[in-house]
Amino acid sequence: MTELSAWFAFFPSFPTGELFKQLLAAGVGTAAFSVLFYVPRKYYGFCAACGAWGWLTYFVLEWAGMTVTEATFFAAAAVVFLSRLFAVMERCPATLFMIPGIFPLVPGAGIYWTAYYIVTDQMELASRTGFSAVKAAVAIVLGIIFVFEIPQSFFKRVLGKKRAGETARNQ
After folding, report:
1. Pick from 85, 87, 69, 50: which is nearest to 134 by CA?
2. Residue ranges of the Threonine/Serine exporter ThrE domain (predicted)?
3. pLDDT, tens digit, for every residue of 63-92?
4. Nearest Cα residue to 46 out of 78, 75, 19, 82
5. Please, what is the angle between helix 16-36 and helix 44-63, to 10°?
6. CB-hemisphere CA count at 13 Å for 135?
7. Given this model, what pLDDT does residue 101 score?
8. Distance between CA 143 and CA 26 in Å, rounded?
9. Is the pLDDT score of 169 beyond 50?
10. How far is CA 14 from CA 23, 57, 62, 65, 128, in A?
11. CB distance 104 to 54 below 8 Å
12. pLDDT value for 77
């Protein structure tokens, strides 16, 4: 029995089929958004990986019992962390990967339903869905801020990159 099948056997109610469909949708959607955002073609795979990783984090944490806001915070932090790693690897700005990668986490449906409920004069539902969308948006912002506080040197060390001009003698 492989480790992966052992993990799924330990969690028999885990919706693996649904997860794989959603990961594919998140990755393809993120890659498509990176086209609209004029990301260079060679980075589409990195962007898709950021979006899929963020959605995987969100999906698993929400399935494990976290609230939508908590899962969104940790998923946004995971996207930004991976974006910063890719930025160091590829020597380009982290926003190139972060902005498309955050796309699957944006509470667009919550914002839409809030506007819909306001137009149809259902103020209680509008306030409930609007507050939930605002909490998710704030969680995304806090996840971004949290990871951007980690020094760039940490990501270089994780990837084994040396600073410019550093030699073996200076280490």
Report:
1. 69
2. 22-147
3. 889 999 999 999 999 999 999 999 999 999
4. 82
5. 140
6. 12
7. 93
8. 19
9. no
10. 14, 14, 12, 12, 29
11. yes
12. 97
In this predicted structure, the answer to whether residue 128 has a pLDDT above a threshold of 60 is yes
Q: How far apart are CA 57 and CA 110, in angstroms?
A: 20
Q: For residue 25, which amino acid is it?
A: A
Say if pTM beats, i.e. exceeds, 0.90.
no
- Find out whether 151 and 145 touch, Cβ atoms under 8 Å: no
**What token pair was written down for 86?**
């890719």
Instruction: Read off the pLDDT of residues 4-47 as tens digits, 9 standing for 90 and up.
Output: 555 555 566 777 888 899 999 999 999 999 999 899 999 999 99
**Number of residues in the chain:** 171
Task: Provide the H-helix boundaries in 13-151.
Answer: 16-36, 44-63, 68-90, 95-102, 108-119, 123-148
Amino acid (one-letter) located at 27:
G
